[in-house]
Please model this.
Amino acid sequence: MIKRWKKQSGQKIPEAAYDWMARLELGDITPEEFEAYLDWRDAEPAHASAMQSLQQSWSRIKALPVPRPAARMAPARQKLMMRRPARRWAAACCVLLVVAGLGYVAASSFLGPAQNTAYAAARAEQRTIVLDNGSSVHLNALSKVVIDYSADQRRVYLNRGEALFDVAHNPARPFFVFAGTGRVQAIGTQFDVKLSPDDTVMVTLVKGVVRVSKARDATGAVDGLFKILSQPGEQAAIRVRRAEAGQTAGASTGIEVTPANKTSFPDNLAWRQGRLVFRGEKLADALYEINRHSNHLILLDDSVAARMPVYAVFNTGDWRGALSAIIKSYPVKAVQISANETRLVSASGEMPFNQ
Model:
């Protein structure tokens, strides 16, 4: 289809750009081949410009409705098909049944029992799921994924929380992760995907190559340009714009890419070593992370303190240490509601809740 569009576009785009676009779109590309693509793209500014132009045009083409084949068939051709003997249709049906039967047997023996299976990690728990193709999913606390494998694709839906993916490369069965409004395609790689309570999707590359795009729905359709992460530590964020006057609620913004940072990169995966590292996150967001890793909840009822930044390192599950540090550093006081719940309220005001 890209080749057909090339003949009609009339744009002066290098031949290699069309070839690379086709391979990137299909996803059948190894990390080594992707490195070759990056070398070609960065060799000349015109190459990068051509790829950007081609991606924009290709996104518009994919959004066009595809006519049904019957609607494009000439009336004479339709009549000719109607005159074909019934025995040809019977023979064709027999062939389709045999092929479908063989395909079902092959797929059933290949896929294993992991299809449409949900896995969850409870509060203060981490889990590792090893999939049938050698890939693995490391679930952070209070997280949930659904595995949906088919003969030609491997799909994982992150419905809540965070997961670290270690993907075995298989060009015949591309690996996709769906989270919120984001879709991540792995190319033999390791990466982390986090779905925040505000529906922000954060993708962190550990090694290899991933392609991040915005997903319109669970069918795999994507919206807009994609971004490629190829350097360990690179991050891509897809944020959801909240409803405002005259705007549609839930519309996602563009994909924001943050360059790799050797200092903060290990912090993003510190949960795997039992640590929570905060480098300026809001107190409300920090408490969400602390509560995920503990069975004792610390709730905050102070909107001013909720927006204050946090710079600290806590051990997962050490809610007492975190609570002590917060009381010393912020204008709040602790009120124990039960054995499993503590509320933080303004140190100068009354509690805005009923005991």
About this structure: The chain has ten helices and 16 strands.
